[in-house]
């Protein structure tokens, strides 16, 4: 094989310095119970049934009565610690015995190590004069690992802190808070952090997980999503101002992935983490609309409230970059960071449907940003499906507004990635650049890692037009995932890296700065990727050879989804065959179909940009069967 490289000056193309970064979303318990090092679950008693069915303000807590103790545990909301944090625990002790109180088991247990120290803090109030102290213990099945007494309880909310040093290693320890005298005590924000956090930060991050992300050497870090950024309903939009300042003042809310967001890992912590790992921050704010998957569909912030919403976005830039004596720069400074964080990129919107409501609000945000902060690169959004209307319209809209960058996503089969390595070769170099903001090949075999590596080579080759790329999702807590495939799996004690992680790391830590054109001659023939049509699909009897058969539309629960379709001529009596199923392995093939069980399929034909339905296969759709259209 001979490779000829054209290294003459000017022959090459510059590769984006920020090409490979990381995507962080609070999905799969990536934040609370994940990267955020807090060990107590539901520390503020703010869990509700809106987070998950059956959850309530005492979820995660058990009432405890030791050695003949008698009392009651409940939550109340009158005169709370802060209006943003309305619930608190009430322990009413009628007979103290050896202690009455409450116990927390953390996220699948509180992992403690012998000799390690833990920062305990809580707010307490005693409305009746008694008790005046509390006992806090780290315990396990076999006894007490650490104990401390907190004195000086007052009739107003007071903050108490102590250090607990464990005498044993236990992956499933519990935290016990006890009153040992009769009376009533109110408790809130009961927190336990390992002293060993990433870079020793207060309110910090789990050291091993943060290091795993740091080892990727991401050039940027996207946060807080994903769908979490635009939320399920207007009330669930991620509002950055609710996530900064003292912990007790942060507004918590349901996580649309089916659990809770404590906001302990908020915008200050995200910015600080970016700085700690040398990654440029890439926040994504909602484009004034919530996720279109909200029951009832996409809703826009009422126009009367849009000026305030736009101001929030401008204030975010000031929070990140403003001088320490500006109103929001002062808040950053008060949190311990007088220097600016150096924000360059701001994503507006995530996979949004390109509706009139979206367009109008996006333009308001974009105009204000362009006027006040012209040096910020605004990243627009294209829908989740590269063959879908929102994708095309998102790009058209971005071109019309002359945006710097567009965020496009691709969760597709390894085969798709192998077949689309030339995708960006023909992208318009005169328009917005690409941020491949979420992508992963579906499946968890070595083939996936190889397909991704091949695709990343293509991204690098097109590093002049592809400005940024980040695999998604990043973290997944074992037993608590809502999405597959994920880059890194973890539990309380272990972090498990996937082959895809190593591919990301290899490219990120060794990426070039210039692409030099080259030719390859005499290379051995390559074997085509495996046939994805194993055991089932759709057979077309008549085929219009001018058309592209690219949409296999699945109607499920009233919504339409378009699966990947491979159309190819197989000859003989089969004519053209359209395979459905997004991935190549039999297992995932079954999964892909299983998800649409009992639903109907519609095949679309696209010719000269006009799509029309070819035919519909009524359900139930079964795995491994051929359907004739
Ligand atoms: O990465 C998981 C989800 O995939 C993101 O939240 C969303 O943007 C995409 O659909």
Automatic annotation (TrEMBL):
EC number: 3.2.1.55
Residue span, Alpha-L-arabinofuranosidase C-terminal domain: 437-629
Signal recorded as keyword: yes
Entry keyword set: Hydrolase, Signal
UniProt keyword Repeat present: no
Domain of life: Bacteria
Signal peptide: none
EC class: hydrolase
Catalytic activity line of the entry: Hydrolysis of terminal non-reducing alpha-L-arabinofuranoside residues in alpha-L-arabinosides
Sequence similarity: Belongs to the glycosyl hydrolase 51 family.
Protein name as annotated: non-reducing end alpha-L-arabinofuranosidase
Annotated organism of origin: Streptomyces prunicolor
